[in-house]
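User: Is it possible to get a 3D structure for a protein together with its bound compound? The compound here is zinc ion. I've pasted both below.
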Amino acid sequence: MVIVSLCILALLFLGLGGRAVWIHAREKEARERAHLLETSWEGAPPLDVQLLTINDYSRPGIPLEQINGIAIHYTANPGATAQQNRDYFENLKDSHITQASSHFIVGLEGEIVQCIPSSEMSYATNERNVDTLSIECCHPDETGKFTPATYTSVVDLTAWLCGRFMLSTDDLIRHYDVTGKNCPKYFVEDPKAWEQFKEDVHTKMEEQKGET
Ligand SMILES: [Zn+2]
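Assistant: Yes, that's possible. Here is the predicted structure of the complex:
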């Protein structure tokens, strides 16, 4: 009886150890894949890559099988920086407050922080998480309007992603278009500004094509 119990304990121990090794291997593989992908992004705007830890609350590590669109969001926390938003996503692994994240966060100075590799799913756009990349934009006040620096970087990044993933401006969506949520506030409340944004992305795409 004792021997049987010991055997069961040993098997359990080996099983758990094996699982830990498996999880470690999966994380290592994801990191390497992300590194390969991001370092081959020639011509991309400067990206501050600070990938989140793989966890169930902000970076599920689920492969993104296809990319059919790019979803634009606003952070809904006036004055918060890209770094603060990124750290909030990272801390969800411990706080478990909600499930949320974004592939990219564009800050008030136009800086771009990447949180999730484009090969993996983010938790940003509800049922379109499965086939879109997400961009969160910081904003200085309650109007939700982006600073000129943020706007320029979002246009550059979006145009570049469209080029890389063979998308057009018809593939750009607001979070609002998926769920009706007032996000990104400024582009929902001012549909002309949203149309102008798509035009600016189109112009930038033409410019980028000319550069290559
Ligand atoms: Zn949103």
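Residues 2-39 form the longest helix (38 residues). Residues 45-211 form a domain with the Lysozyme-like fold (CATH 3.40.80.10).
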